[in-house]
Write a structure and sequence with these properties.
Largest interface: A-B, 19 and 23 residues
Radius of gyration of chain B: 29 Å
Strand order of the largest sheet of chain B: 10-9-15-16
Shape of chain A: flat
Number of strands of chain B: 16
Distance between the termini of chain A: 73 Å
Shape of chain B: globular
CATH architecture of the largest domain in chain A: Sandwich
Strand content of chain B: 5-15%
Largest sheet of chain A: 5 strands, antiparallel
Number of strands of chain A: 18
Structural class of chain B: alpha+beta
Order of helices and strands of chain A: HEEEEEEEEEEEEEEEEEE
Oligomer: heterodimer
Helix content of chain B: 25-40%
Amino acid sequence: MKRIINYLAIPALLVVFSACKKDNFDPPGTTFKGRITYQGQPIMVEQNQVRFQLWESGWGLYAPIDVQITQEGNFSAVLFNANYKLVIPKNEGPWMLKEAGAAKDTLLVDLKGNQILDIEVVPYYMVRNAQFSQANGRVSATVKIEKIITDANARNIESVSLYINKTTIVGSNGNMQVQRKDSTVNGATDLNNLQLSVAIPSMTPAQNYVFARVGVKIAGVEDRLYSPIQKITF
Amino acid sequence: MKKLITITYIALATSMTGCLKDDAFLNKQPTNLFSEEQMWSDPSLALSLLGNLYNRYWDMESVEDWASMVNLNDAFPSDNGQYGRVTNSEWGYGDWGTWDYGYVRDMNLFIKKCAAATKINEADRNRLGAEARFLRASYYFEMAKRMGGVPLILEPEQYDFSGDPSYLQHPRAKEHEIYDFVISEAEAIKDLVPTNIGEKSRATKGAVLAMQARAALYAGSIAKYGATTPQVALPGLEVSIPGEKANGYYQKALQAAKDLLEGKAGAYALYNKKPDLSENFAALFYDKSNNNEVIFVEDYKLQSGKVHGFTLVNQPRYTAEEQEGGRLNPSLNLVQQFEKLDNTFAPLPTKSGSNYIYYTTPTEIFAGRDARLAGTVILPGTTFKGKGVDIWAGLQLANGTVVTSDLPGGTQKVNNVDVQAVGYDGPINGYQFSAQTGFYVRKYMDPSVGSGQRGVNSEVWFVRYRLGEIYLIAAEAAFELNDKAAAAGYLNTVRARAGLTMPLVAGDVTFDRIVHERRVELAFEGQYLFDMKRWRLAHIVWDGNAISASDLTANLGVATKRNTQPWGLWPYKIHDPGGPNHAKYIFKEVLPNRVTASDRFRLGNYYSFIGDNVINRNPKIVRNPNQ
């Protein structure tokens, strides 16, 4: 009996160790990365809430590869070399696509090796000169919000919020903040010198720093526009 | 030798008589299949085909899928495999989607063949055909709710193998065209189906009118409130309905609801058999004999193979008939929405100033509220199947320290004496089947013996349409048409049954009231998500922000109140032998610790994702917005 098992085991092991080689595909190896920018400045959004799509035709199932944009406005994807159509879906991001009129803005990307590409868009606003400070258990922020689109497509600001979080991921979602301060904005608000402040809550485990950023909710636009993130030690 | 000859003869004789003639053999009737001709010559065989179509009806939050009821934070899942539902921060774009054109085709085939089946007498044929049309309209309505406008296919189409399938590719219809189709089908078939209040599981005039009323109401509200979210729209109107159509739809909804309320489809009436109003509200769902409120159901029958385990999986754990139960725990968010008897909203009073309020029984805190509360939720200190539930989270000593145990009914030493430190039904954070919000669900729970056993299960039906909802449809439609007095009348009828006897007057009826009334009356009946979607409130109610303790109890009864995390209300027993408050109860609002995220409803969730495979096969399909 034992001998039979041994005889069976040898070919079985042979099968296991000689596993197929020929039909394995190479993994994708080309890095495609860059930023979403306006005049060279990255546009900050919320982590993994804004994305664009890469379409490659010629395959049985024509389906997009979603590429998420990080909170610093960067993106990075590892892909196969091919001809891609880069599409930012409609209503995605706090910006307008450069070519107005058409429902989708398509950019042709011919990937033949690692490539860095900045995608230029026009945001409704830009958050400038974000300055953070802390005193007496509160974080204060001062920002200038510059209106970029001023023509018929201009949109108002609904509210401006200051978010703080324990980790470097900061945003409007509940798990990206430990405290927030929402402030509605109207015609009388001075957007050149907008001040916000929020109390630092007690945190478990205790830590002596938080990360803060300011988010702008534009009326009729789902995705918020953000300032850079700053670590504040107290 | 002689023997050999004999054998040869026998062999020859056998081989020559063996087979039938070819034509007789090849035309043999199968004994295990019905031919199409046979199916369409007998109404009871045709009905069995229709039974298959009834079985494929699409439901939301059915009694066979308790876990879908926790997605929207009106409940918490007390089940180790389901905590993902409270640790997620958003829903997938594909959630709630459906694209079952195989089902549509089967219904189209049925309708076509039924119309041609002259061997069935005309009355039966008309009824069967009308029932299939009801199911088809129901499914198109379901698709419109989830996907927006979809291709409206009303003929069973056939591919001709020419290599060019483009004639089978149909674009999406406009969203309002689907609703118009549902409404006009209802109008066309309502007199072809029987008017029979005793028939609950097949289409009746009552069911048809109820579907018409609901569909018209949905269309009306999408037309009206869609304007608040201009991004949730497509230029071809596959999604969004023009605002000027709103009033027409509301009028149709009101008319269909009125027809039902005035008895044109039979003498339906609100269920009012039991003197205890909470028991009465619970019985409305489990009482299957002469139930005049229920209009259309998915029915179940014991010992038939068609039973469900809703009671099994949700029975209070301590008194359960199996080693499981207690999964669906309604949240405090829902519980505190039930009004006080004077028609005002108030959080459950846990503190007066900074001191706890002491209650003699754990049920006392819920006294003087809408009777539907105890009819929907098993409250601490109440009973199910005659046995009490034991829900309290720990002992609070005189000095304020809390003593508890991590096992149901576990004991701890207090002053060197062993005392029970937590209820047998919990709540214990992370202990599955314990009441982790402090509540168990009661709606749809079957009080009959054995309903909690795996080998028996429950035959309580799943209610798809009932008269209570029709009153609320009438109220909402009347309110939107600016007839607030009539709206108040409809609301008062439903509220009186819940013990809210102080009538609302016309001035009291606001949009928030309508939203509130539907939420408490129709909790766990699969309406909440679609209501929030059609009012375009979903992205406000589920905005991704956490609910703080102070947010939780503020703004009750306001339609836009945040509902992103399921909170609980935990009773604690005071342990202070000899003290004035010994054995009394205090309550604390608690966020169960398995809840680690808050839900965000993105604009792309309003209409579910249409698969890339669908669009690949039919490039005329346009994508839903914001995805």
